[in-house]
Amino acid sequence: MDLQDWRGLRGKYERTPEVRAKQSSFLKGKKKPPRSAEHRANHRASMIGKNKGRILPPRSAEHRAAASAGQRKRWSRPEEHIKHSIVMMASLSSLKVRNKMSASAKIRVNCLGAQERKRIEKIKYWQNPVNRSYNVRATLLGNKVKPNKPEKFLTKLLQKLFPNEWKYVGDGQFILAGKCPDFININGQKKIIELFGDYWHSEEVTGISKEQHEQERVDHFTQYGYQTLVIWECELKDIKSIENKIIDFDSLRA
């Protein structure tokens, strides 16, 4: 059998158990001599040249399943986790490795293409109402937001005017397309009351006029079928006026 014929059998030739046992006993206890840095560099260059432009054939479902099962079996052993942890700790303790990782990370961060892709991905993520609602709710619940003094005052006033008809949900209980209203009607009406703080909803913070900011919030909830009443913190000083405003809003029907 010549060399060409032998190469043709690679991957097809199956060693018998007897041959494998003989080779194992022959190699047992023997260590390969360490290869020089020059040899490793030449080998890497050679492999890169051979594999350049090469497209590997797709692996079968059976092959992928077998590989996955092998990995699960490997990582089910606690000693594998310990071994991997030791190797990683040893690797990261090397100044050369840390510098290499730092340089690679800087290249990725400073790459304009990567920055643009991340920017576009973030825009697409936050344009999704489901994602916005999830993040707003998680933030409010995580921070354990509680009603402030004006919200407590308005809660008592609503309970006085309309007992058990309005509920405070400004702590993240109810999110609608990324917006968290302060009060919602729980008596069958699709109505929302927003209490705007004089500072946090001012033109200085929002960058737009109070009228525009108020209308944007009303329009946002209107597209989901909700009527919205916006009350400003300064209006709470005139109790009679604010009571009439709430009563008029409650009497409206869609």
Tell me what you see in this structure:
By secondary structure, this protein is an alpha+beta fold. The protein has a domain at 142-251: VSR Endonuclease (Endonuclease, Chain A, 3-Layer(aba) Sandwich). Helix content is 59%, strand content 7%. The chain contains twelve helices and four strands, in the order αααααααααβββααβα. It has a four-stranded mixed β-sheet, sandwiched between helices. The chain is elongated, with a radius of gyration of 34 Å. Residues 6-11 have low confidence and may be disordered.
Topology:
Layout: H1 3-8, H2 17-27, H3 37-51, H4 61-75, H5 78-92, H6 95-110, H7 112-127, H8 129-142, H9 149-161, E1 166-168, E2 183-185, E3 191-196, H10 203-206, H11 210-222, E4 227-232, H12 239-251
Parallel strand pairs: 3-4
Antiparallel strand pairs: 1-2, 2-3
Describe the structure concisely:
The protein is built from 12 helices and 4 strands; from the N terminus they run αααααααααβββααβα. The chain is an alpha+beta fold and 254 residues long.
* Main CATH class of the domain at 142-251: Alpha Beta
Mean pLDDT: 81
Q: Tell me what portion of residues adopts beta-strand conformation.
A: 5-15%
Biggest sheet, spatial arrangement of strands: 1-2-3-4
Main features:
254 residues, alpha+beta, Endonuclease, Chain A, 4-stranded mixed beta sheet, 12 helices, 4 strands, elongated
